[in-house]
Batch of 4 targets.
Target 1
Amino acid sequence: MKTDTLVLGAGIVGTSIALHLAKRGQKVTLIDRKAPGEETSYGNAGLVEAASLYPVAFPRSLRALIEVALKRNPAANYHWSALPGLAPWLYAYWKASAPDRILDYARIMQKLLSHSVAEHDALAAESGAAHYFREGGWLKLYRTEAGLANERTEFPLAREYGLTARELTIDEALALEPSLRPIFHGAVLWSDPHSVSSPGGVTKAYAARFEALGGRIVQADARALAPVPGGWKAVTAGPHGGETAENAVVALGPWSSDLLRPLGIRLPLAVKRGYHMHYAVPPGGGLTRPVLDEEGGYVVTPMEAGIRLTTGVEFARRDAPKTPVLLDWTEKIARELLPLGARVDPEPWIGYRPAFPDMLPVIGPARTRKGLWLAIGHQHLGFTLGPVTGRLMAEMMTGEAPFTDPAPFSVARFG
């Protein structure tokens, strides 16, 4: 076999794994039906997080649950037809969102998040992608004292890990982002995260660096993954029928289960759908960093294509038609906060956040299948964790000492 490893999925996670393996001298083929960075890795808010210690958890209060159930929360939507199939996953998600388990999650994720900015910086420097990155953190706005008070509960753990969160008055927030209108109660500036002006551009730059190191990119739809003597074959459409190597990494995000189920690997992976739209920037209406309207249910962030508005989550079947209800709703709310020009994109973009109910990704070997590796389920932190996942996976696959204990991310936790 001429290839050491097949990496299936050219999002930020798969591309970063391929690049890290190539840096270690492996011959790697990266396979995706689209060019690198054109699926979920294209459409996020562009954050490289260091401070998202607490996850996007399932609502625990009765009031919050009722608001979601009645579709009165602009951060969440669902399809009735999807709920029966999602019920077991949602119940497990609810249990994992208990306060004590959330704290466990935070301490586990900090092992990755503490490296996220540095790992992106390293790949960006060697890939010529540093111009996409900006410092300045991100700004969280709160329309009520209750919302701001809830954010304050994160400060003690943040200080424990050396993170910087500063509560701002309305005037201080407006000094940072003059285009905002003073319709909020208070704000918090998290200074440690970075952000980018084009997540897709960053992913493509990492892919180009991978190719420069001798890596090979194949644009093809991997329809199946099959064990063959001495390795694995990714079955693709086309005259030659596929690619073969000793090892295979599945990093296909929400499409991973399509290849894993036929191999007898059944994981509790669900998909949180989300939408975005770009808006023209009117004179004096720009932003310098991402801004979260916590109670408005959206993020607005400056991108190359304009101001990008990203929505909360929609629970639906992965392949169901678009229903951009949250985008229409939050656009109206966002226009109260800052001036937005006309829509730039011809239609709303939809993305798919793959998520396990415990909100942790799977990073490591498939256990029951020699030479098969998994890197899936990064939910809301895929872009953030791409390079650090790539490093951890490459270290495990090449026999290096991992920079952190990979056990919490093992697929073994699902039995």
Target 2
Amino acid sequence: MQDESIRDDRQALTGDLAAMTSPLQAYLETLHHTYQPLREGAMADYIPELAKANPDWFGICIVTVDGRVYQVGNYDQEFTMQSVSKPFVYGLALEDHGRDYVLSKVGVEPSGDAFNAIVLDEQSNRPYNPMVNAGAIAIAGLIKGENPAERMNRLLELFRRYTGRTMRLDVAVFLSERTTGDRNRAIAYLMRNFGMLAGNLEETLDLYFQQCSLLVTCHDLAVIAATLANDGLNPITHERAVDADYVQDMLSVMYTCGMYDFSGEWAYRVGLPAKSGVGGGILAVAPRKLGIGVFSPLLDTRGNSVRGVKVCTEISRHFGLHAFNTCTDDTRLREAIFGRL
């Protein structure tokens, strides 16, 4: 047993040294140095607790599907997931009910409106997609459990599988969201009026506010993204986080709807399934290759991290990660990870 522990320690040390000497690590450090002075954007202030973030916080992390980790800056600074949580709760609802049933309750069409718009698809009698607040609230109402505590524990266990660590709630942010969440209550009551939402509305809203208030780091985001890139298998712990059959559903709605009303331009310029949150996090997925996590709380007018958008754009362009890139192979990425072959 001791020999195994020593071998594991040596493997971890070897991996750390490989990351430290990798051209990819040097590239991330250059990116961080380039965009750290950027002061564009503003903190989210409609949730009072979020306005307390430090505008200088800035972290970047990449995790490959074989478990290599490259990170720089404030990659271990905790912040709340906010809308980054939406694709993963959607995945849990798919596991609970199946694709057809969930699709009958929440659509997959981009709305073209702000994430908190009080707009519903009245023709199909559904929220437009799971990435806007209306759709995410409806998805929260689909999570199985005998009571609110059991449903919340299922979310904590879900994100434990994705991140490989025990998750915890930022109670101050949760209470702040609950206190100031009248717009989300309006959305929920409107959906109930149209028969789109059943059950106890306050319990559903509390679960939604709680999923948004879970604490993560930039490192966590990259591990989560790499888990999706790895068909739902966590590349660090090797534990399955989500049924592989539903990964394509999650990535599809992330690609078309994940970046608020910037999703179309993101798909055009970056070309990766992604999800952002007003806490300052962005995760992006390069299927079968790697996951990207970026954290910076300065947001643009659409609610996306300013530094995060720029970093993801640069990484995608530099390594040819765009989903529809047909001009380059993986040579540059392989050389960045392993050195020149």
Target 3
Amino acid sequence: MKGLYVITDHALLSAQTLLDGVDAAIMGGASVVQYRDKVSTPEVCEKNAMALKALCHERGALFIINDDVLLAQRVNADGVHLGSEDASLRDACERLGAAKIVGVSCHASVSRARQAEQEGAGYVAFGRFFPSKTKPEAPLARLEVLKKARRKLKIPIVAIGGINAGNGAPLIKAGADMLAVVDGVFGQQDIIEAAGRLTTLFRA
């Protein structure tokens, strides 16, 4: 896991624009797509997840479900991402199996990340690093967290929170393998260009 990790948002991508928006992000270089939908019915979420999984696999991107282990299992997603208040990591790993990816939000706690790695997490996410429109109340993390995590962990590290092409480079330099982005891609007029600018940071 390396590069641009995009996360969908129902406020930025409607039912009509969801697939086209994600397709544009992948064309711009996104290598991981997380489907995050807190408002749709279970039936709509499953329908969207199936369509997104097919698109991601056709385009060569990984497909992750936010929060919902059962949905990830039903649609055979590549994995699931768990927040600090979501399902048990151990339960998710057991239910989905060793071949699937289980990511965990760790905010600014390297000790939580180390525990998650020991319990089978496929990656950990730290943040928010900058003011975030998606989660403005999320606790702040600093670059030192990424530097420390890089020394302590063997699994991939994801940075999240208010990231765009103008501020992402220091996060990569500090140790982030991936930049997770919502508004910085899907909130932009040209999604392909926005994703491409972020992807370029990893080549630099």
Target 4
Amino acid sequence: MKYIKDHENLSQKSVLLRLDLNVPLKNGLITDKTRIDKILPIINFLLSKNSRIIVVSHVGRPNGKKNSDLSMRPICEYLEKKIKKKIKLVSDNIFRLEKDDLFKEKFDEIICLENIRFYEKEEKNDTSLAKQLAGLADLFVNDAFSCSHRAHTSICKITEFLPSFAGLQLEAELSALKKVTSEIVKPITCIIGGSKISTKIGIIKNLIPKFNNIIIVGGMANNVLNYKGNQIGKSVKEKNCEKIIEEIFETSKQYSCSIIYPVDVLVGKTVNSVSKVKVLDEIDNDDLILDIGPKTIDTIKKVIENSETVLWNGPAGYFENPNFANGSHEIAKAIIKKNKKKSIYSVVGGGDTIALINGIGAIRDFNFVSTAGGAFLEYLEGKDLPGIKALG
């Protein structure tokens, strides 16, 4: 893989830059700017090299049709303020554009094409769209790791028609993920949450042979508790997971990986309740398990204290209600404490986990925070990502 930071001459080169600017919009306003802030380094890098930038991205799922609610305009306006540069949004049909149409004005430095998913050919990894895009630029940079699990035109097919490079954010994502999958400093711990254990089984199975500890929290821990013969009241539970859980425990024995799950919990009668601590044999039929309890927190903190590397994906409880956010906050604090001593390497991923640490102003207190979602999870499962393979 070639990296754009190693390119010797980018001056006056037209760079087709694939970014993930798929941010949540409400009434034309951006409600979470994390993904945009993450791509500022590549924009500033290319500007410092006097490159001409053609931004390609998508917002939402317009299904190949124009949709004014999913325009790139509010994103361009926010990005202009961040970099203090004018960005020209080009809404013309891509198939009618020519290279000379783009940088007509003397001071044009950044062009943004309208939502690439307005074209149905984008999601078909289409050759004709790739050739047309390639005709607008001198080289291609993928700095959208979070889209690289998709075999789409502006991620994969484009690499067949332009010299192609990995961007700064993509390189950082891969570097961080390698440190928790192949270049591991042990002891290494994975803290994994979420509501469905079936969606994370691929990750757990792939990580057990490499990890010392897998800590299961959140809704998916309810399945483990129930499998172990505990009552879980009316808590969230996925059906038909017994074989999955049995396989997790059998595989963990084979590789001497400890599986850690709650020994006490916080419950409420509804998600809006005040929390109450209960040990596992005290759970009533109408209880909802919504967080981990103090004994479980103490166990997790000791594991973190003895770890050199930690991967965290998924909160420990229903953190939207502050009464059930303590477990997640205590996990965050334990990792941050080690980070400040530079005695741990921490990688955090997943939308809910990012929302949680954003909420306590701690996003800069971890070594790496991934906004990648599906690509993050598929990489952890050991799958080949089409966008990464295309750069090879």
